[in-house]
Amino acid sequence: MNLSNPLPPIWENYKITVDGLKVIKRAVKTKNDLDRRRLLQRTFISKEAPDVDNVDTVAESAETDVQALFVVKLWAAFERFLRIYLQNKCAILKNMTPTDLGEGIYDHFFKEVEYWKPDEILDFLKLNVLKSNEQLAGSAKDIYRYRSDIVHGNQQGKKIYPDFAHTTLDRIIQILLANK
């Protein structure tokens, strides 16, 4: 099984994006007009909002959106990892006899796992590979609910921050990868 953790590049992109917002705030506050224009050339701020005075408010709003979107991205990568992991794990079914039956069961499972609800997958894992760390499944469910809220435009639930999502989902992936 050649499966790897998909989260590190997403996490790096998040950190770079947050750093970029910090740089923009500093650039806008640069006192020297020539330096300010040079730093902001070919940016939205220089074209659409050159006199932005409330850069902190705008950057905070952008960071809130970035946080939510990266939680969604982390979840999407995690969920795809889970499904591929289960599909790979169950490839052993193809070796059962009679082989036609084994391959048929595997083909059915391979397609059906795409329709399993994430909560059900997490409940299943909680009883097995996560049984010594059951709270991880509960935390992952919280991340899933937050992701669903964001995707469906409902932002009234409990907020999940990218660092929590990354740490939780990464820990689950590490446990799964240790149980290849």
From TrEMBL:
It comes from the Bacteria. This is RiboL-PSP-HEPN domain-containing protein.
